[in-house]
Design brief:
The chain is of the alpha/beta class and 236 residues long. The chain contains 9 helices and 8 strands. It has a single domain, classed as TIM Barrel (Alpha-Beta Barrel).
Length: 236
C-alpha cells in the first residue's frame, strides 16, 4: 500500500480518540473543492521501486510501535483508500498492534467495504455523501456509479460498529432543496455531519472560486431537515 503522508497526531479526525492519520494517494473522484489536490492524481506521488514502498511501510510501523499506549487509533484517508490493493493486509497489521481503525471513503467500492466490515477490521467508517443522486456527477466531477454508492450506504448501516455520513456543503454547487432528498435517503442512519467548505488556499479546480463567490447556505436550516430522521446530526 502506498502512503503519501502521515499526520502523527490528531484530536479531531477520529471522534473520541487520539489518533494518527495516514494519507493514501489516488482518487476516482474529481471534486473541484478538494483541498488535497496533490493526492487526487496518483501520478503526482511517485515511488521508485518496491524497496522504497517497503521502506516507507517499515518506517510507518516503527512509528506505530513507538506510539503504542499513546495513540488510540489510526485514521486512513485519501485520496480514496479503498483503491489501494493491499488495504486489507495493511489494516490487519495495524489492528494486530492494538489500534482502532477509522476509514474515510467515498463509497465507490462496496466490495472492499463489505470485506473490511464483515472481517471486523474497521471500527469506524466515515463515508462522504457528495450530493443528492441527481447532483452527484456535478459535485464529484465524474459520472459516479450511484448503485455502488447506495450499496455502500446500506453496508455501513448494516455492518459498521460505528459510522457517520457527511457532506461538505459548497454554496453554488449544492442547493438547499437537495438536502431534503439526502435526509430521506439517509433516514434511519446513526449520524450525519454537515461541514462547510472552507477555502484553505488550494483546491483541485480554482475556477470554482468564481462560481461560489458571494453565495451561502444556512447549515442550521439544512440540519433541521435531518432532525427526526437521523439519530444524531452535527455541524462541523
Amino acid at each position: 500500500m502506498l502512503i503519501a503522508g502521515l499526520q502523527k497526531m490528531t484530536l479531531i479526525d477520529y471522534p473520541g480518540k487520539v489518533a494518527a492519520t495516514v494519507f493514501t494517494p489516488g482518487c476516482n473522484f474529481r471534486c473541484p473543492f478538494c483541498h488535497n489536490p496533490e493526492l487526487v492524481h496518483s501520478s503526482h506521488f511517485t515511488v521508485h521501486g518496491n524497496e522504497q514502498v517497503e521502506k516507507r511501510m517499515d518506517e510507518f510501523f516503527e512509528f506505530l510501535e513507538m506510539r503504542r499506549g499513546k495513540l488510540d487509533g489510526i485514521c486512513i484517508t485519501g485520496g480514496e483508500p479503498t483503491l489501494q490493493p493491499n488495504l486489507v493486509e495493511f489494516i490487519k497489521k495495524v489492528k494486530g498492534l492494538g489500534f482502532a481503525v477509522k476509514l474515510d471513503s467515498n463509497g465507490t467500492r462496496p466490495g472492499v467495504l463489505r470485506k473490511l466490515l464483515k472481517s471486523r477490521l474497521v471500527d469506524y467508517v466515515a463515508m462522504d455523501i457528495k450530493a443528492s443522486p441527481e447532483n452527484y456527477a456535478r459535485v464529484c466531477g465524474v459520472e459516479a456509479n450511484l448503485e455502488k454508492i447506495k450499496k455502500s450506504v446500506e453496508l455501513i448501516r448494516d455492518l459498521a460498529d460505528d459510522y457517520e455520513f457527511r457532506t461538505t456543503v459548497v454554496s453554488g454547487l449544492h442547493s438547499e432543496e437537495e438536502f431534503k432528498e439526502i435526509a430521506d435517503w439517509l433516514s434511519g442512519s446513526r449520524r450525519y455531519v454537515l461541514q462547510a467548505f472552507q477555502d484553505q488556499g488550494k483546491i483541485l479546480d480554482p475556477k470554482l472560486r468564481k462560481e461560489i463567490a458571494g453565495k451561502s447556505i444556512d447549515l442550521e436550516k439544512l440540519k433541521s431537515f435531518f432532525v427526526g430522521k437521523v439519530r444524531e446530526v452535527l455541524i462541523h
